[in-house]
């Protein structure tokens, strides 16, 4: 049993949710959305919808987490409700690319933003050094992990809020991307609206993060729902406001199809020299993202290894109950993907199956009987059914728009399915 002083409260769990959610997606998605839809009401609706469905997910994971009370998130839920094979498929996807790739992407994005300061220092090896340093920190204790997560997330949130305040305080550009007419009604029926939701759902990834470390949270019945729900609501508000700020300070032509929409918009406010520091802080805030994914990803790997002999060597915890082997294998895969530079494509391959497996976890609540002593999801089962239908809609468009990537993602699952049946003999002494 983990001692109480080595557990975290709801504020730290909430900051973990916020840290994992606010990554590269919110600073890059708008440019791709503007290629399909132009109305500001449509853009706002996209981000509100993304937040609403993330909130449904938070409700669902809060109930599942307080029902099972085991760290491991989707692996535990799917294994206990359906079959260990289903949970293993999720854990395999998480091990191979699901959490390792976002760590690598965040590290490389951080480098690209910091590189203008000093290219000889801020290179690939700097990103790898950050991953190693954070892995060392998370190897010490849950208390230390929480402290680092709190500090890095405070910086992240303060920076994003500062962008929002500055963006609304300064008068908008004479020519900007704000469009407030009735064209939004037609845009809702466009295929591009559904495709834009793909980018939004990616940007909201991480709303379930606290559910992966349930046995590391004090009083999970009270604190897990609070962390998931409040974290998701906070991020949704910030996301919506930030998109409006970006639209206020740049034109559609400037933003459409561009990745670095934040630096484009704020260069119109601060000029090219001033915007350099915006890029620097975007890079710095990604440290919290790397830290968060290292923390939660290792718990999924440990939960899988504990129940499957193929990964038995990873079943180890130090004297402070930290799954250090799982933590370091997570870091090693992330570093490998960083060195190869192919992680973005790998993540694209995995996005279809991650969306699919996440939807399956939401659906799993429909098979769980209510019991006393657990959080009850509001709107159950209607909210879950709405989420499932929404997700199937998004998955359908992913199949149409990204057929190659979707099927390669399913191929990754197929490899995992094969590995499930590899059962090494364990020597009994």
Any overview of this molecule?
This protein is mainly α and 429 residues long. The chain has one domain: Amino acid/polyamine transporter I. Helices cover 71% and strands 0% of the residues. The protein has 17 helices and no strands. It has helices at 10-21, 25-33, 40-68, 74-81, 84-98, 100-114, 124-138, 142-169, 184-187, 191-203, 220-248, 252-255, 261-307, 324-340, 343-364, 382-401, 403-420. The longest helix is centred in the middle third of the chain and has 47 residues, at 261-307. It starts with 9 loop residues before the first helix and ends in a 9-residue tail after the last helix.
Write the layout of secondary structure elements.
Layout: H1 10-21, H2 25-33, H3 40-68, H4 74-81, H5 84-98, H6 100-114, H7 124-138, H8 142-169, H9 184-187, H10 191-203, H11 220-248, H12 252-255, H13 261-307, H14 324-340, H15 343-364, H16 382-401, H17 403-420
Would you summarize the structure shown here?
With 429 residues, this protein is mainly α. It contains 17 helices and no strands. 71% of the residues lie in helices and 0% in strands.
What value does the Rg take, in angstroms?
Answer: 21 Å
How many structural domains in the coordinates?
Answer: 1
Judging from the principal axes of the Cα atoms, what is the shape? Answer: globular
CATH architecture: Up-down Bundle
Q: Compute the average pLDDT.
A: 88
Q: Can you count the beta strands?
A: 0
Spell the H/E element sequence: HHHHHHHHHHHHHHHHH
Number of helices: 17
Share of residues in helices: over 70%
* Beta-strand content: under 5%
End-to-end distance, in Å? 27 Å
> What fold name stands as the CATH topology?
Amino acid/polyamine transporter I
Query: Uncertain regions: pLDDT < 50 for 5+ in a row?
Result: none
Major beta sheet, specifics? none
